[in-house]
Amino acid sequence: RYAISSLGLGDCVATLTTINTPHLGSDMVDYLMKKMPDKMIKWIADRYNSIFRKLGDKEPDFLAGVGDLSPVRLKQLAPYMEDCPEVSYRSCMSVMKSVFSAGLPLNVGYLIIKRLNGRSDGLVWENAAIHGEHRMVTAKGIRGISHGDTIDLFRENIEGYDVREFYANLVAELKKQGF
Questions:
Q1: pLDDT at 141
Q2: How confident is the model at residue 109, as a pLDDT?
Q3: Angstrom distances, CA of residue 16 to CA of 2, 78, 98, 138
């Protein structure tokens, strides 16, 4: 959204579809940053920064990335991410149906967000993901779809949800609509 509205790429983009994206931020970020001891925050950040370095990031900054997910920060960034009238905005969101829908850390995130806001995918509150034309992504059964499931992180078969088909269908719909 920033690239479209602030970097002048609106004329290069026909449609933007976001998947389980916290457009309004994540209250869980502020909650955890207030509750966790500084040493623990630093330990977690160091672990993630180490992973990012191994993946090729020469100067990773996990805490800056996490900070950008704060609702306060998202409100500051909002003027730089205004919708471009020429672009079609769409959003998709899924939710876990219980704490047992995913393992660590998503199950913990699910519990925190449920207490703070309501339904979530373990990282993103349901209502924070709404932007433009919106749809809920669901699965059969009692499991639900976690944030990790939307990127096939756990490589699990979920009844009524095939991650590859989900993305292929999104592209097919956009093509059918002329995009």
A1: 84
A2: 96
A3: 11, 16, 30, 21
Distance of alpha carbon 116 from alpha carbon 111, whole angstroms? 9
pTM of the model: 0.90
ω before 105 within 30° of 0 (cis)? yes
Q: Is 15 helix (H, G, I), strand (E, B) or coil?
A: strand
Own/partner contacts of 112-120, CB < 8 Å, gap of 24 or more, are: 112/28, 112/31, 112/32, 113/26, 113/27, 113/28, 116/27, 116/28, 116/31, 117/27, 119/95, 120/95, 120/96
Cα gap 173→98, rounded to integer Å: 30
Q: What is the pLDDT of residues 12-28, one digit of tens each?
A: 999 999 999 999 999 99
Residue with tokens 């309004």: 24
Taking alpha carbons only, the member of 140, 142, 144, 141 closest to residue 110 is 144
For the purposes of burial, counting CB atoms within 10 Å of the CB of 130, is it exposed (0-12), middle (13-18) or buried (19 or more)?
Answer: middle
Look at residue 86 in the predicted model and tell me its pLDDT: 95
For residues 83 and 5, is the Cβ–Cβ distance under 8 A? Answer: yes
